[in-house]
């Protein structure tokens, strides 16, 4: 099954340009063909093509279904973008496949990359959502300063953890710290790790310093591990 | 800390060409400088450079330490190489970082890629081992036919699971199937999934069909999920 993405399909009754091209040029679909379109907000529409236009394919909605989310806890990943953007791109592809609700890009004291164009990352998230047959597109925020994010999460009713390398603060193992079923915010630092001041600030704001095991993981690997671990722990009967 | 890799350091007392170049050309290290060298078999040597030669740097061993493995269960990942080799390359980088003992490349009925040059994959595994400060280099096998691998594992005293997409056989959730502390063999099929005959053959040989959750995962994502999940479950106190 192939899914197309059109956030406003119900209003426009058209596929956006990129999806129109994919539908009509690449897949050679024609008037009368049936396609599935998701809106990224949890709805999937069964549609029939009424005009196979390569830039604005017009459709008619035949049926509409609410797609269930595969998990009933919210995962927020707040990560400092890596110097090498490829590593962020595959991280986003993977966590959308595996399942994440919100991605926040952090600007930390030791960040080597302080600016990120999010359009390309958005595109990668959209195609990962389509490919993994999901109906929800996770929220991706622009880069925000570490301090502002920590403040914004202060007093949030969910679990908040801080994955970092140095052991200036005692760290708990994430696996035995996360309480199943609860929403979680996972913060992962840059290649140069969080600064001592940042760790202190986060701990004061209620973040728990955690480790994902003995292995030294790259930024993107730690981020992926945290998201995967949350699902694995919730899958336990 | 920077680790160099020289499988036979104790005999040769030299860094191989690539590591010599990195040591002397890139890092500009000189006679008398101290470096760490791992042999990929669990030993790390503290060495002093006696000749900073860019092709065969000579060293003297000052101290030798046994590096503990971070996990006491063996993980074998048997995976059908993806059509796009980049996906295999990052998979290997990630599982070496996270921790794996053996990687087997499978040739399945639906494999789009039946040949893989392993030299480049080996190189990626070596640098991931160095980067994540490990002392063990996982074993990487050449591509072998699915049937031969399943036969070779028959009667193996460890848990063997088969991650696949279709549900011709009832599948258990890996998280509640894996018995902590035990060695595990995780088989992941190609983009086109295992064929019904392959699934039947594996089940008859004692492999348990498992799922890693509701999300549809790409081959390399499922493989990474399986390896990560094994560590997460073993980290539970």
Number of extended strands of chain A: 12
Number of helices of chain A: 8
Quaternary assembly: homodimer
- Rg of chain A: 20 Å
**Strand/helix succession of chain A:** EHHEEEEHEHEEHEEHEHEH
Strand share of the residues of chain A? 15-25%
The helix-and-strand class of chain A reads alpha/beta
Intertermini distance of chain A: 30 Å
List the chains of the largest interface with their residue counts. A-B, 33 and 32 residues
Query: Describe the biggest sheet of chain A?
Result: 8 strands, parallel
> Quick check: average pLDDT of chain A?
93
Poorly predicted regions of chain A are none
**Any idea what the shape of chain A is?**
elongated
Helix content of chain A: 25-40%
Overall description:
- 2 copies of one chain form a homodimer.
- In chain A, helix 3 runs parallel beside helix 8.
- Chain A is of the alpha/beta class and 237 residues long.
- Chain A has 8 helices and 12 strands.
- The radius of gyration of chain A is 20 Å and the shape is elongated.
- In chain A, 43% of the residues are buried.
- In chain A, strands 5, 6, 7, 8, 9, 10, 11 and 12 form an 8-stranded parallel sheet that branches. Chain A has a 4-stranded mixed sheet with strand order 1-2-3-4.
- Chain A binds chain B through residues 70-71, 90, 94, 97-99, 131-134, 173-176, 212-218, 221, 224-225, 228-229, 231-233, 235-237, and chain B through 70, 90, 94, 97-99, 131-134, 173-176, 212-218, 221, 224-225, 228-229, 231-233, 235-237.
């Amino acid at each position: 099954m192939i899914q197309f993405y059109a956030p406003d399909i119900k209003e426009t009754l058209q596929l956006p340009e990129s999806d129109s091209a994919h539908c009509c040029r690449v897949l050679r679909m024609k008037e009368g063909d049936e396609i599935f379109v998701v809106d990224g907000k949890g709805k999937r529409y069964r549609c029939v093509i009424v005009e196979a236009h390569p830039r604005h394919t017009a459709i008619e909605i035949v049926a509409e279904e609410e797609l269930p989310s595969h998990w009933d806890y919210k995962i927020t990943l707040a990560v400092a973008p890596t110097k090498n953007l490829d590593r962020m791109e595959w991280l986003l592809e993977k966590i959308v496949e595996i399942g994440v609700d919100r991605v926040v890009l952090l600007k930390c004291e030791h960040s080597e990359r302080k600016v990120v164009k999010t359009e390309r990352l958005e595109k990668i998230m959209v195609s990962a959502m389509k490919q993994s047959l999901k109906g929800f597109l996770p929220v991706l925020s622009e880069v925000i300063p570490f301090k502002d994010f920590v403040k914004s999460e202060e007093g949030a009713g969910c679990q908040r953890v801080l994955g970092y390398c140095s052991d200036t603060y005692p760290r708990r193992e994430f696996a035995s710290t996360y309480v199943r079923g609860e929403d979680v915010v996972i913060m992962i630092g840059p290649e140069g790790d969080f600064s001592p001041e940042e760790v202190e600030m986060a701990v004061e704001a209620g973040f728990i310093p955690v480790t994902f095991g003995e292995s030294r993981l790259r930024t993107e690997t730690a981020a992926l591990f945290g998201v995967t671990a949350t699902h694995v722990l919730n899958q336990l009967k």
